[in-house]
Amino acid sequence: MSLELVLITGMSGSGKSVALRALEDAGFYCVDNLPPELLLSFVALEQRASAPRVAIAMDVRSATSLPLVPRQLQELRHQGLQVRPLFLDANTDTLVRRFSETRRRHPLSSHGSAGASGDPAHDQRRALVDAIELERELLADLREQAHVIDTSVIRPSQLQAYVKSLLSAPMSQLTLVFESFAFKRGIPVDADFVFDVRMLPNPYYEPALRDLTGRDAPVIDFLRQHADVRQMYEHIERFLNHWLEPLARNHRSYVTVALGCTGGQHRSVYLVEALATAFGKRWTTLKRHRELDLG
């Protein structure tokens, strides 16, 4: 049995330590902030020790050697290892807020290019934003090759659940992640495809349905009655059926399909449930309901 390796990278403040704890709970041997130069030798050491599951976190503190990682991961795959790269991301406003609340210093803050405006708070924020944008540039190649998880509006417990659900999916084929969300809380930054379903009939305006969700039978019955809803479902299904095979041939491990409505409670939830059921007959399929999971 080959070693299973999960590599966690991502933006500073995005929750990498939370994800690493979830993997530790799942039985992985975890190492935080391993320098990329040591990756191959460390994995070889764990293979000699017959370790079955290893998780490694890397971040921008190793910026000068991060460009080594994509080639190293390819080499490990050629050796027969199961490699899962995960990239944790969040929007800039969220990252700024988290750094402000914790009073932590961004690892690239010394590279900030903020000018002196006469307002110390403004200059401090500008320097932090500059550091975050520089970090995005430095990590762009790693993000491109990984499955992205948007942590902007989710709690640590949600992130842990998402990570564990990803580990349950087999690595031998493409995994589809269907996610419902509310546009009023922002578009998920981890989405590969985004479908706007706000033009569909809204159960929110039916008093008997307002407090229910798209998983409840009365809401399902209401939406099924409308031709627009059926047509939207058919259009999304046709689009995905056309493009999933090319994505799988391109060696994509995960594809996240996000569907958004106003509140992320009725229409998007209903369509995620329906699409996940249909595509689950052929593909490995996971579901997320961002707003419902917030509880």
Note down, in words, how this protein is organized.
The chain has ten helices and nine strands. It is of the alpha/beta class. The protein has helices spanning 16-25, 39-48, 69-78, 92-102, 120-144, 156-167, 217-224, 227-249, 267-279, 290-293; strands at residues 4-10, 29-32, 53-57, 82-89, 147-150, 175-182, 193-196, 254-261, 284-289. The strands form two sheets. The chain has a five-stranded parallel sheet, sandwiched between helices. The protein has a four-stranded parallel sheet with strand order 7-8-6-9, with helices on both faces. It is globular.
Q: Label the overall shape.
A: globular
Q: How many β strands by DSSP?
A: 9
Largest sheet entry: 5 strands, parallel
Q: DSSP strand (E) fraction?
A: 15-25%
Strand order of the largest sheet: 2-3-1-4-5
Helix content: 40-55%
Q: Give, in order, the helices and strands.
A: EHEHEHEHHEHEEHHEHEH
Total count of helical runs of at least 4 residues: 10
Q: Over the alpha carbons, how many angstroms does the gyration radius reach?
A: 21 Å
Structural class: alpha/beta
**What's the overall average pLDDT, rounded?**
91
N- to C-terminal distance: 39 Å
